[in-house]
Specification:
By secondary structure, this protein is of the alpha+beta class. The protein is built from 7 helices and 6 strands; from the N terminus they run αββααβββαβααα. It has helices at residues 2-11, 60-67, 75-80, 103-106, 123-126, 136-151, 155-169; strands at 17-23, 29-35, 85-87, 97-98, 101-102, 119-121. It has a two-stranded antiparallel sheet with strand order 1-2. The protein has a two-stranded parallel ribbon with strand order 3-6.
């Protein structure tokens, strides 16, 4: 992580870590930590505009880090401070949208995702519902997977998700 921090510092000006408010367990707001992958003057803390493939706001180092999901490593701080778990529904930025509508407006059961701690990885991610949410279908499928995870949680299920994350998501086509 120290080498990644150094690479960020050498690549562009600004903070090494990106802190973004997100909703967690029981709808409590927390700061989700990530390595900064965008130019500091182009960061969108509230996520009014989600990242897209080929996004010009992403730095050279940031593009590489996102490709291998290395920007997510600081979320281990969130796990250690109790605001996140290793596995669970991914926490979304508060203003994230699908088809220009807030997620909670698009999916009626969206808030049910907050019955558990959010995770660094989850069932939706390993099933290909990671990344951009340009359509309503994308967020509906993501939430469907999240609710399936919550309803079927077990330690073996978590271990399966961790294994699938390592196999499928470290260099995912949905990571950009």
């Amino acid at each position: 992580m120290a080498l990644l921090a150094l690479a960020i510092r050498l690549d562009s000006k600004g903070p090494i870590l990106f802190r973004q408010p997100r909703l967690g367990f029981n709808n409590r707001m927390f700061n989700c930590y990530k390595f900064r992958t965008m130019y500091a003057d182009k960061m969108d803390v509230m996520a009014d505009r989600l990242t897209t493939r080929g996004d010009p706001r992403i730095t050279r180092v940031g593009k590489w880090m996102r490709k291998f999901s290395l920007d997510e490593l600081p979320q281990l701080i969130n796990v250690m401070n109790g605001t996140m778990s290793l596995v669970g529904p991914r926490p979304h930025a508060t203003n994230a949208k699908a088809a220009d509508r807030l997620y909670a407006e698009v999916v009626q059961q969206y808030a049910l995702r907050h019955r558990v701690k959010p995770g660094i990885t989850g069932w939706a991610q390993v099933n290909g519902w990671r990344g951009e949410t340009a359509t309503v279908e994308q967020i509906e499928n993501r939430v469907r997977c999240d609710l399936f995870y919550i309803d079927n949680w077990s330690l073996p299920f978590d271990l399966k998700i961790v294994a699938l994350t390592i196999l499928r998501e470290i260099h995912s086509q949905h990571a950009f």
